[in-house]
Structure formats: C-alpha cells, structure tokens
C-alpha cells in the first residue's frame, strides 16, 4: 500500500512539473515572512497601510493637555512612557496609560493591543505617587515654618 501511494505521488509530481512548463506566462509571487513579538513566524500581510510597520502618531491626553507623539507601531507601552516622561516630566513609574478603557502594562506592544495611527491614549498620574508628593510637600512646609 505504501509503495502504491509513493508511486502515485511521484507520477503526480512529474505531471505537475510538465504542467508547470506549459504555464510560462505565470508570475510567482515571493512570500515574505515576519516574526511577531510573541515569537510566532507568520506570513506578512499585504495591505495598503502596511499595518504594524513604520511610524504612527498617537494623541496622548492628560487631564489638561494633549500631545501628539510619533512612535514605531511595534513599540511597547513602556517605551511610550519613556517618551512621555520627556514631555510631561512624570517618571514612567508615576504614569498610568489607558487605552480603550483599560490600563496597559509596560511589556504590551502597541500594535498587538490594537493601537493604530491617530488613536487616543489617556495618561494619568498614579494616585499613590500623587499622594506621596502631597504628604512629602506638607512635611517639608511644616519643618520650614517651625
């Protein structure tokens, strides 16, 4: 049984190679592969926007201001926080970044979560850090006035 199947396979492959020679006008398209952040090797998408590639602009809204930040689409939220620390003077550990109503972790990738060009991200100051600053500032005022 196995020999018959292998013979059939050989015959069919020879027929395909002969048939392939008769199709001289066909153009073979090269398949491009990409490695996703999770380690999965997948076929690269062929879209007009080239989703997941290049620079995207994200509108980051704080309580009173907003900033347009350009980052790579494959960046992480931690990298976004580092850029925001230069703009807002808040340390990355003091920042809380929300996208689609959920707080995002530093190791999550923007394109894997669904952040696209011209999307809005909300930046809030960590309440615990804000409280520590208030108490630290209050203690400093008391020592000066005494």
General description of the model:
The chain has 146 residues and is an alpha+beta fold. It contains four helices and seven strands; from the N terminus they run αββββαββαβα. The radius of gyration is 27 Å and the shape is elongated. It starts with a helix and ends with a helix.
Offer a quick outline of the entry.
The chain has 146 residues and is of the alpha+beta class. It has helices spanning 2-22, 77-88, 110-113, 127-145; strands at 33-35, 41-43, 55-61, 66-72, 95-99, 102-103, 120-125.
Largest sheet: 5 strands, mixed
* Biggest sheet, spatial arrangement of strands: 4-3-7-5-6
Ends distance: 99 Å
Order of helices and strands: HEEEEHEEHEH
Helix content: 25-40%
Strand percentage, roughly? 15-25%
Q: How many beta-strand elements?
A: 7
Q: Given the C-alpha coordinates, what overall shape results?
A: elongated
Mean pLDDT: 76
Total helical segments: 4
User: Could you list the spans in which at least 5 consecutive residues all have pLDDT below 50?
Assistant: 1-17, 48-52
Rg over CA atoms = 27 Å
Structural class: alpha+beta
């Amino acid at each position: 049984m196995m020999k018959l199947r292998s013979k059939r396979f050989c015959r069919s492959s020879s027929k395909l190679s002969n048939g392939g020679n008769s199709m001289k006008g066909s153009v073979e398209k090269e398949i491009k592969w990409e490695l996703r952040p999770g380690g999965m090797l997948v076929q690269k998408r062929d879209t007009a926007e080239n989703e997941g590639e290049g620079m995207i602009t994200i509108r980051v809204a704080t309580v009173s201001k907003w900033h347009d930040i350009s980052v790579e689409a494959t960046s992480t939220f931690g990298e976004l926080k580092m850029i925001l620390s230069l703009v807002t003077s808040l340390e990355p550990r003091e920042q809380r970044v929300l996208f689609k109503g959920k707080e995002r972790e530093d190791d999550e990738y923007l394109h894997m979560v669904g952040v696209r060009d011209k999307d809005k991200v909300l930046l809030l100051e960590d309440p615990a850090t804000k409280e520590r600053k208030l108490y630290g500032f209050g203690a400093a005022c008391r020592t000066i006035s005494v």
